[in-house]
Amino acid sequence: MSYKHILIPVDDSPISYAAIEHAEKLAKAFGSKVTVMSVIALDPFTGVDFYKIAPAVTQYILEAEANAEGRLKDIKETLSHHGILVETKIIREVPTATGILNIADEINADLIVMGSHGRTGLKKLFLGSVAQEVLTISPIPVLIVKQSN
User: Fold this and answer.
1) pLDDT tens digits for 76-112?
2) What is each CA distance from 54 to 24, 30, 47, 63, 65, in whole angstroms?
3) What angle do the packed helices 14-30 and 50-81 form, to 10 degrees?
4) What are phi and psi of 107, to 5 degrees?
5) What is the pLDDT of residue 117?
6) How confident is the model at residue 130, as a pLDDT?
7) Which residues contact 94 (CB under 8 A, 6 or more apart)?
8) Are 69 and 77 in contact (CB under 8 A)?
9) Which domains, and CATH codes, for the chain?
């Protein structure tokens, strides 16, 4: 089996960078193209009176987009320098797992490589798991890179 197009969803966590390292090795081995993506969601403001927090939401979105753009630019430069064909995408205003799966479908990815914090028990129940949701719903293989303790 060979992977032609690998999708790597990232955020600003160290586990995302571990996933990038794994994906880079796979991309080199298979000559794969890579798309690195971030999702900008409004989750922190769910259920809050929009009119009272509108300036905070606007500032949050602007900062989140600037951070995501900078992160994706740096990752693209690094992977490109290592000989990998890279594209980047930012998705807005959708749940994270939905954004990841939509992009995987849009780009015809045949593998998703993503990090997981490896939460278990009550932490997973209350905090949810984007990686678990993607793994459960995805029609294509998903490689989960777990955070080591």
Assistant:
1) 999 999 999 999 999 988 889 999 999 999 999 999 9
2) 39, 46, 13, 14, 16
3) 40
4) -95, 0
5) 73
6) 87
7) 39, 41, 102
8) no
9) 5-146 (3.40.50.620)
